[in-house]
Amino acid sequence: MSLYDKLKSQVDELRATRKQILTEHGDTKISDVTVKQAFGGMRGIKGMICDTSVVEPDKGLIIRGYPLSEVADRWPEDIFYLLCTGELPSEDDVKSIRKDFADRAELPGYVIDVLKAMPADSHPMAMLDTGVLVMQRESQFYKKYQEGMPKTEYWEPMLEDSLKLLAVLPAIAGAVYRIRFNKGDVIPSDQSLDWGANYANMLGIEDPDGKFADLIRLYLTLHCDHEGGNVSANTCHTVGSALSDAYYAVSAGLNGLAGPLHGLANQECLKFVLEINEKYNGSPTKEQLTEYAWNNLNSGKVIPGYGHAVLRVTDPRFDAFLAFGAKNFPEDPVFKTVELMFNTVPDILKEHGKAANPWPNVDAGSGALLHHFGLREFSYYTVLFSVSRAMGMTSQLIVNRLLGTAITRPKSVSTKWIQDFVN
Question: Which of 93, 225, 315, 363 is catalytic?
C-alpha cells in the first residue's frame, strides 16, 4: 500500500479521536507553568502535541510506540513510513515508498546553479537551507491553496511536497558537500539505490565494502526525530501551522538546527576527542583520560557529549553508534577513545557531582564514525543531521495538516507582568 493510501485509510479515525478528546477533556489541565520555566525557554512545559515520537527520560527516543533499540536496524524509508502512519511497513510498502522517492528524485538544475553562485566560504548549512528554500516554487501545497481547496484536503499536497523534498534532499546535501569543499563535479542521483546509499554515493567518498553506506543509513535512522519541542521541530511546526508549505517550514527548521546549541554538538564532541588523541599521540590509557577529564572539569569546562536536557540514561542512539564502531573498526584510535570515554567519564562525573545526567548522548560518538571514513569537514556534519531530521519535520507537517492542527499562538507576558503577579 502506498503511503498516500495508508494515510487516507486512517484519516477519519484520527480526526474522530482528536475531536472526542477535545469534546470530553478539552478543559483538563496537563501542565502548570512556573516563573522559572517562563524565563528558561519553556523547558518542561506541556503545551503541544507531537504524535510521531516522544523522548522518555529513562528510555530515550520512542518512535510511534517503538523504542529506538527495536527499530535501529531498520532503513530510513521504513522509519519515515512509521513516523507518518504509526505502523512498520511491509515489503510492498517499502517498495512503494522507495518508488515514491525515486519518481521524485530529479533535482532541478537551478538549485545547483544557485549553490554554485553562493560565496565560496558559505557555511554548508546556509547552502542547504538556500537549496531547500529556492525550491519553494515547486510546492504543490502552495499552488493548490491558491486555487482553493477544502481544509480536509490540506494534507494531500503537504504529503506530495514532503515526498518531493525528502527525495531531493540527499542530492542537495551531496551537491553542497561537493561544491563547498571542492570535491569535483556534483554526482547525480542514482535512482537504483536506496535513499541512504544514494546519499552516500553522492558524497563521493570511497566505499568499496559498502560500510560507509551502512553508516549513512544508520545515521539517517537514528537522527530522524526527537519529539516536537526541540528547536528545529518546534520551529518547523510553528511555521507550518501558518499554512506555510513544506519548503518554507523545513527551511525554517534547518535555520534552528544550525544553531550552536542544537545541531553543532557532534563536531564539538569530535574536536574534544581529537584533542585528547593529539595530546597522547593516539588513544590514551584510562589513567591518562581520567587525568585529562578532571583537569577539564576543574578548570570550569564540561565534557562534551555527556549529559542531556531530557535523558537520564545512556542515549540509545549512542549505543547504536558504539555497536557499529565496535563491529566494523574497533581498533580505530579515535573510536577507541570514544569507547574508553564511555567506560570512564560517567564515573568521573558522578564523583564530580554537578552533572544531572553523567551518561553520553548521541553526539558523543557520531562524529568519530564519520571521521573514520574520511568525512572530516566538521562544518558539514550538521547537514547530515538535517537530512535525517527532515523526516521528522515533514512527517509532523503531514500529520498536523491531516488533523487540522491550529496555528501556534502562545500568550506572552512581560517581565513587569511577572513582577506584578508574584507580588
Answer: 363
Query: What is the reported pLDDT for 356?
Result: 76
- Confidence (pLDDT) at 263: 80
pLDDT, residue 297, reads 94
Name the amino acid, one letter, at 423. Answer: N
Reported as a pLDDT band with limits 50, 70 and 90, residue 309 is confident
Whole-structure pTM over 0.85, yes or no? yes
Q: Is 371 a catalytic residue?
A: no
CATH value of 265-372 in 3.40.50.150, 3.30.310.50, 1.10.230.10, 2.60.40.10: 1.10.230.10
Q: Domain 14-19+35-262+379-423 falls in which CATH fold?
A: Citrate Synthase; domain 1 (1.10.580)
Q: Residue 363 catalytic?
A: yes
Three cell numbers written together for 325:
564502531
- Residue tagged active-site, from 78, 123, 214, 262: 262
Q: Say which of 308, 315, 319, 371 is annotated catalytic.
A: 308
